[in-house]
Structures are given as C-alpha cells and as structure tokens.
Amino acid sequence: MLESHYNTVIIGAGPAGLMAAVEAYNPKHSIVLLEKMHKTGIKLRISGKGRCNITNEEGLQSFLNRFGKKGRFLKYAFSQFFNHDLLKYLNEMGVPTKLERGGRYFCESDRATDIAVAFEKKLSELKIPIAMKAHVTGLYKNDEGRFVIEVQHGGRQVLVQADQVCITSGGLGYPATGSTGEGYSMAQSFGHTIVDTAPSLVPVLTAGDIAKRIQGLSLRNVSVSIWDENKKVTELFGEMMFMRKGISGPIILTLSEILVNMLGSRQEVNIKIDLKPALDHKKLDLRLLREIAENKKQTFRTMLKSLLPLKMIDLFIDLLKIDAEKPLHQITAEERKRLRMLLKEFPMQVIGHDSYDRAIVTSGGISLKEINPITMESGLSSNLFLAGEVIDVNGETGGYNLTSSWSTGFLAGRSMRNNKLGVERYLEN
After folding, report:
1. Could you tell me which residues come within 8 angstroms of residue 193 by beta carbon, excluding any fewer than 6 positions away?
2. Which of 20, 203, 211, 298 ranks highest by number of CB atoms within 10 Å?
3. Domains plus CATH for the chain?
4. pLDDT category of residue 1 using cuts at 50, 70 and 90
C-alpha cells in the first residue's frame, strides 16, 4: 500500500530507475520506486536476446564518441560511474560478468533477469519498496512546492506527495515492456522541451526481394555506406544480417538513426555493401584475374563459391546475368568488371524502418540543455531529476546505451541522496 508522502519518488524501474533507487538510499529519507508493469526491468530482461549486453570495454573518449555530439553531456556522469565501476558493482551484488567479442560484457549466466533480481534483492535489503502496477497518470507541484503524483494503483486513484522526484520511465522503444513515453509529458508539464523522437537502433526495410531471398544470412567484416545522390554520407564496418523485409545487425542498427532521419525527407535512401573491404578495386581485380587464370576450366558458379556465402551465389548469378556454367576462360573483361562492382558496391534501397515495437532505443527526448549534467537535476524545476532513456541521449549498439542509463541513474540517485529534504529543508527556511 502506498503512503501519502515520501521524501523521494522514482518513476520507472528500468536500469536507470533501479540504479537511482539504490543510490538514493539515505536513512533519513523515505523512498519508493513506482513501476507500472508487473515486474521490474522488463526491457532489461529481454535485452541482448535475454543475455543483456551490460556495457563495453572501450575507454572513455571512444565511448563518448559513440554518442556523437551528445556524448559531451555524459562526460561527468561517466567520470563518476563508468564501465568497470558498473562491473564491480554487479559483481558485488552477486552477478558475475564475462567479456566477449567486440569488447562487450554480458552476464556470466547469460541471463539478463539475474541483474533485475539482484537489484530487487538490494532494494529489499535497504528496505526501499517497489510498488508494482503503479501507473503514474499525473505529476505537478502544489502551492507548497511539493510534488503531487497521481497514481493508479490497486484499482484506485492515489495521490502521493514527494519532496523530490526522479523520472526514469524510458523512451518509446518496445512499448510492450512499458516504454510508452509518458515521462515526456510529465517533463513537459514543468516546461521541458522534448526533442523530436524517432525509433533508433531499429531494423530498416529495403526495396525488392533481395533481403527475402537471402533472409537469415549474416555477414561479418563488411562495410556499409550510406549515399546521398553521388555523395557518401558515412560508412561503417562490422556485422549485418538479412531479414524477410530488410536488414539488421550491429552496423545497420547503428546507421539506422541517420537512415531514419534521411527517410523523413524522401521516399528512399541508397546504401552500398562492400563485401570485400580488405581489397580495393585494383587488388580485387587482380584476385579475380588470378582465379580465372588458375582455374580456366571451372565454371562461374564454382568461382563464386570462393568469393561469397552459399546463400548469395544464385542471387549474384541472377543479378549479373552470367551463365552459371560458363567456363572461366570465357568470362569477358566487362563481366569481370560487373562482378567486381557488385562485390564492392552491392546496392540496396532503404524504403522504411521498423516501428518503435522493434526499436532498441529512442532518438530524441528531454532536451539536454535543460538538465544539469553534474546532478541530473532539471534546470527548470528544483528537486526534479531525469535519467535514462527519457533524456535526449542515444548511442550505438554494443552496451553503450545501457551504460548511459546506469551512469545517469547513478548520478541522479547520488544527488537525491545528498539533497536536504522534508523537515531538514523546512527547518532551515
């Protein structure tokens, strides 16, 4: 049962909210964590296909670069609580971790649920209650300067007063987990600006049937470039995969924010996949010439087997319109050039993107200009704190976004812990 007043109320029990609740602990403060779903950290529990990519091994500057210009906002938060601080924190709570390819850290058990359970146990030890199925429907300040929180809980409307509030209710990605953007309207009621939101780290949809023909195929060590007419916008090296209606995988998810933004002003965007990024055009042509010279009597299909994954061979034969059984000594210079161009600049047209239902994070959110990066306190309303995905910070895939949530939640919690509230504050006045 919710009480009528708390010193500290945290709205949303995702990574940032769980961290903020633990770090807000102060024996002089009464604290409650409100979660509208039936369990904590639902999105956390399904992240990384249920394994949870907790954080990344990269150093500070490289880490910040993963957030683009917004990374500057996180510099102080990361200086206070960064990747190895987080790993130690989890280990001390009984969650051992392991390092995998790409500098990514996961739970040793491969169970993301272990993290949520560990935080629940820690909060229980600190006697900080978690009110489940507590849906915040309104938030404002009364004439005394205290927050009033309207909560649907236990089948009825409850009014809870608080001296300080932290909004950690997430963005719009995976709404079935409870991320439905309500924190934006709460912040707006205090005058905060919401930077336009869009799905980010989201699969993209492509024209034609190419993706469908090779769906399920994963490619490693390829480069994908985005083109604006004849100008290359950006390029990224890594892994990608084909789905029934489009493409996904780490580099596509990272590029998706740019693709989504570009699609906002046009119907399609062109990308090119370099299947042989280790070889420039000249070196690749020499390799093709060598293969042809050394295997003159072999067929074109046989040569493709040494160049491509099996799933792509028939696709290449159809696109190039070269007879699969044609002997290599009959391959013309023009045909060899077409093959080289397709290997180096495999074209696809991006015509859309998946919805928020498939978006790992949200681009946009509460403007960083209105948040103190040292405390995570609102610059527009005292004792209002903001952390996690609800703020306008999003980075690449690879554990970076979760680290941002942990770190900003940590900073907000510490700031609330050290805040003078209730009787202390009123006696001073």
Report:
1. 366, 367, 369, 370
2. 20
3. 5-199+362-428 (3.50.50.60), 203-354 (no CATH)
4. confident
